[in-house]
Amino acid sequence: MLISFAVTNFRSIKERVALDLTKSALKGTPSNYFKAPGKHTLLHSAVIYGPNASGKSGLLRAFKALEFLVGQSASAKPDQVIPPYEPHALEVSYAKRPVVIEVSFIANKSRYDYKVAFSKKRIEEEELFYYASGSRSLLYNRRADQEVKFGDYYKGPKKTLEKLLLPNQLLLSKAAENNVDVLLAPYRFFSRDVMVYPLIEDYHEDNLARLYAKRLAENSESRFSKRFNSLICALDTGINSVAVEEVDWDRYEFPSNMPDDVQKRFREDYKYDIKTQHSLYDGKERVGAEKFDVDDESAGTKSLFVIGGIILDALERGRVLVVDEFEKNLHPSITQFLIQLFHNEVTNPKHAQLVFATHDITQLSNDNFRRDQVWFTEKDEYGATSLYRCSDIPGIRLNTPLDKWYASGRFGATPIVNDVDFLIAMQEDGSEG
After folding, report:
1. How confident is the model at residue 146 (pLDDT cuts 50, 70, 90)?
2. How many angstroms separate the CA atoms of 49 and 169, rounded?
3. Is the pLDDT of residue 103 over 70?
4. Cα(first)–Cα(last) distance of the chain, in Å?
5. Which of the two ends of the chain, N or C, has the fewest CB atoms closer than 10 A to its terminal CB?
C-alpha cells in the first residue's frame, strides 16, 4: 500500500514534489478510502491532470526508475552507468546533482520509509526506516564512501554484505539477492506489489496481450480468466466470449536463415492467439457465431484487453497500479467504470490503489474523486514542474464543478496556446525551395 511518493531533480522536476495518498480531513465518498494497518487512512486512487509536457509522465517515470533500481541494480557491473539517472537539464547547477526519490509504504502490515539518491554511476545515499511498534526506527543508512550504519532492528550480515556491494547497486537489492530476511518485505513491495506502466506503447501492448493469452490458455477456469472474459463482454464491445487457440505453426514458413533457437523462442512467445466471438445474424435473427483475431478488433477494444488485464491483476492481488495515458482509445464511460472498480469494496476487497495521469476532463464532472484525490502539474517559466492537490486550493467546495473550473484555467495546469506568432508566420510570404 502506497502512502506517499516524492521526487527531486528528475527530468522536468527540479525542486521536490510529493504525491500523498493519505486521506485528508474532507468528508464524503467513503468508498474512495480505506483503513490501512498502523492507523493510516489511505485513498484508493489518485489522478493527475496537466498540460502536455507539464511533468505528469516524468512523475510516473520516477516510479519506474525506482522499480528498476530495486529490481535490477544488484546485477549492475562495476562502473556501469545507472540508466534512470535523468537530472533536471534546464538548470545548470542541477545537471550533475543526484536524483532523489522517497517513498513511504506499507508492506506485510508494517510501514517503511525508503529514500535513495543516485548520480550517474553511484548511489549517493540510501536509507530505510521501519516503524516498529509505531515508532520510526532505522534499519540502515548508507552514504557514498562511508561505512553503512545499521540500526538495532537490522538482523543479518553486515560486513559481508558491504563487501559485496558495488557503488552503483542498492543495498536493498543486494540484500534481497542474498536472502536477508528482514529486508525481504520492503524489497517485495517494489518487485511484486507495485505495477508501473508509465507509457503503454504498442510494443508493451503486444507483450501484455501475449501474457494474458498465455494465462487464459493455461487455465481457462481460473478466477482471472473468468473475470477477464466477463469484463471484456460487459463493456459494450459486441464480444460474446474470449477464447485462446494454440497457433498451428505448420501453416507458417520461417525464413531459411533464421536460427533454430530464434524460431523456437518465437514459437514460444507467440504460442497462443486470442480469439473473440461475435454473434452472426441473418437479418435480425441470430444464426450462430463468428470468431475474429484480436488484431481485427477496434483500437479501443485492443486497449481494453491490455488495461483490463492490468487492472484485474492489481485488484486480484491488492497491488499499486501506476499507469499513464489511462484513457487511451477508451470511451469516457468505460474509463469511469474501470476507475470505479478501485472504489468498490466488492471489486476491490484487497485495497489495490490506482495512480494515473489523464487528459479526460469528463472524469472530473462525475463523483469519481474526492478533492484530495485530484492533483495538477504545471511548469513555470523556467521549465520546472510543480505538483499540487485540488483540496489545497483555496475556495474549493464540495459542489465546485471541477471539470468546468479546470477547463477554464481556474486551477492552472492547463495549456496556454500562444497562437499569435504562428498566425503571423502563416501570413508571411516566403520563397519556396
Report:
1. very high
2. 34
3. yes
4. 60
5. C
Half-sphere exposure in the Cβ direction for 35 (13 Å, CA) = 2
Task: Output DSSP code: residue 13.
Answer: B
Interval 34-59: pLDDT, tens: 999 888 999 999 999 887 778 888 99
- C-alpha to C-alpha distance for 225 and 17, rounded to whole angstroms: 39
pLDDT category at 279 given cuts 50, 70, 90 is confident
Q: How far is CA 424 from CA 39, 153, 415, 427, in A?
A: 60, 67, 20, 5
* Angle, in degrees to the nearest 10, between helices 299-317 and 332-340: 10
Question: Going by C-beta distance under 8 Å and a sequence separation of 6 or more, which residues neighbour residue 91?
Answer: 14, 382, 384
Given the candidates 3.40.50, 3.30.450, 3.30.310, 3.30.565, the CATH classification of the domain at 2-193+318-407 is 3.40.50
Q: Which helix (H) or strand (E) holds 142?
A: strand 135-143
In total, the chain counts a number of residues equal to 433
CA distances for 53 relative to 79, 104, 175, 321, angstroms: 32, 27, 37, 22
Residue 20 has pLDDT above 90, yes or no: yes
Cell numbers at 140, concatenated: 540502515
SS3 323: strand
- Over 90: is that where the pLDDT of 287 sits? no
**Which H or E run contains 377?**
strand 374-379
C-alpha cell at 273: 492467439
Domain residue spans of the chain: 2-193+318-407, 212-305
Share of the chain above pLDDT 70, in %: 85
Please tell me the distance from the alpha carbon of residue 54 to that of residue 71, in angstroms, as a whole number: 28
Q: Which runs of consecutive H residues, i.e. helices, occur in 11-141?
A: 56-72
Does residue 322 contact residue 356 with C-beta atoms inside 8 Å?
yes
- Grid cell digits, residue 137: 526506527
Average pLDDT for 329-345 = 88
- Read off the pTM: 0.84
Statement: residue 203 has pLDDT above 50: no
| H-state helical runs in 355-418 | 402-407
- Cell numbers describing residue 166: 558495488
Separation of alpha carbons 306 and 313, rounded Å: 11
Find, among 116, 112, 186, the residue nearest to 144 by Cα: 116
Dihedral angle computed from the Cα positions of residues 406, 408, 414 and 420, in that order, rounded to the nearest 10 degrees: 170
Write out the three cell numbers for 202: 504498442
